[in-house]
Write a structure and sequence with these properties.
The chain is α/β, with parallel strands linked by helices. Helix content is about 40%, strand content about 25%. The protein starts with a helix and ends with a helix.
């Protein structure tokens, strides 16, 4: 419905959700309530040059349309009208009408006009696709508004989840290390003692716990492996004890886990949530991580242990690291190329988190796309999406030499993981296949 489409653009977080992952943009000032005179200010980098863009909103018609005009920025002039047009009672059309003029007069139009037009078309094609994804995921539970606390909001997933939930109409609070912003409703987390502010957690509907040290941030020494385990298990156990002791407990806790639970599973056979735990450091870590939620489960809170696959986003994670070498023609299979790659696009991961917050499910849930693939097929699909053949394999000895045990476990091993529970509950993926996911993330939308 047009009203739902408009509401998402009028809520906090809308600007964050509409920044393409290939753009280097820092939001400096977000508008408060969408109203005439509200200002958005951000800094972007183009060709290594920092540019500040200031836009003022006007002609605001709630539920129907609004405009923004550039007051300072890269264009000589820019006026953008957003319109939310009904297409019957249950559908709508999003129209972005932009009138702009490049700097430099005739020379600017001659040398930059074609590039500017292509960039604008690419940006709006991507923005419309993301809008469809978000609306699809929010539509699974229409009208439901939750009070939700989220940890790990400095990470790729948590930082994206907050604006995603906010634009869906939910009241979202961040669980933060250090001094909380009480005006925003932040929940304090003292990382020295792993103590959480119980009072700020009272009365919430849900908690999403995503915090943990990055497993691919650096080579694995014994001390780094201890930190990977400690950063997951101790805070999770403390948070769950805190939630269990509340007078007004949340109905659900969604706690991150990983498909590392299944260990290395050579061969094409698929595993799902009914499969036993695998072997090795990652599998053992995931088991401890999931057991750390026992206190919340025992207190009657519905606990979902979300086993997350390889998250695809051009803004961070594995795909962001792979794109530069692939664009130089250096991409290809890693090791044998036969190991399983169980992945999920970031937009669908956010949708899966939203889904399990309300669906009748508890325990382990695999957050992956419907069809896992081999490492070799993953590389071929990425090369095809960006027009670069994947012809430069990375042999196993090189992986071990460059990355040690971390590379061996993360790059040379894998499993073909199936999302049996999400599929059985009727979850709808917006990007269920690699070709569409890669084209969306790189802005090559057909």
């Amino acid at each position: 419905p047009a009203r739902d489409l408009a509401d998402g653009h009028f809520r906090a977080g809308a600007g964050d959700r509409l920044i393409p992952p290939w753009e280097d943009v820092e939001i400096l000032e977000r508008p408060g309530a969408m109203a005439d005179g509200a200002v958005a200010r951000f800094r972007m980098r183009k060709f290594g040059v920092g540019i500040e863009w200031v836009a003022r909103h006007h002609d605001v018609q709630p539920g129907r349309s609004f405009s923004d005009t550039q007051e300072r920025g890269p264009f000589r002039s820019w006026v953008h009208r957003h319109s939310f047009l009904p297409d019957g009672d249950a559908a709508s059309m999003l129209e972005d009408r932009v009138a702009y003029e490049l700097p430099g007069g005739i020379l600017g139009r001659a040398f930059g006009g074609g590039m500017a037009a292509r960039d604008i078309e690419r940006m709006f094609a991507w923005r419309h696709a993301r809008t469809r994804h978000d609306l699809q995921h929010h539509a699974a539970f229409p009208g439901e508004r939750l009070r939700i606390a989220v940890s790990g909001t400095n990470g790729l997933v948590g930082g994206s989840l907050v604006p995603f939930l906010s634009t869906g109409g939910h009241d979202v609070r961040r669980i933060v290390r250090g001094a909380p912003d009480r005006a925003r409703g932040d929940v304090a987390w003292d990382t020295r003692t792993d103590a959480f502010d119980a009072g700020a957690l009272e009365g919430l509907d849900a908690v999403v716990h995503l915090a943990g040290a990055g497993i691919a941030d650096q080579r694995w020494s014994e001390s780094r492996k201890r930190e990977i385990v400690r950063s997951r298990v101790a805070p999770t156990a403390s948070l769950c004890r805190t939630l269990a002791g509340l007078r007004d407990k949340p109905r659900v806790l969604v706690c991150a886990s990983a498909i590392g639970w299944y260990g290395d599973r050579p061969g094409p056979a698929q595993v799902d949530e009914s499969s036993p735990r695998g072997d090795g450091f990652l599998a053992e870590t995931c088991e401890q991580w999931e057991r750390a939620t026992d206190a919340a489960r025992d207190a009657g809170i519905r606990v979902v242990n979300l086993r997350i696959g390889v998250v695809l986003s051009a803004r961070g994670g594995a795909l962001a690291k792979l794109l530069p070498p692939f664009r130089m023609g250096l991409g290809g299979a890693v090791g044998s190329g036969e190991q399983g790659m169980s992945w999920i696009d970031l937009d669908d991961l956010l949708g899966a988190i939203r889904f399990v917050l309300s669906a009748d499910v508890r325990g382990a849930v695999n957050a992956v796309a419907p069809e896992p693939c081999s490492n070799r097929d993953f590389g071929r699909a990425l090369g095809a999406a960006i027009g670069r053949p994947a012809v430069a394999p990375l042999p196993s000895p090189a992986v071990k030499a460059m990355f040690g045990e971390m590379g061996e476990r993360l790059l040379l091993e894998g499993a073909f993981v199936r999302p049996a529970r999400l599929a059985g509950l009727g979850f709808r993926w917006a990007l269920p296949d690699l070709d569409h996911a890669f084209r969306f993330e790189t802005g090559n939308i057909r």
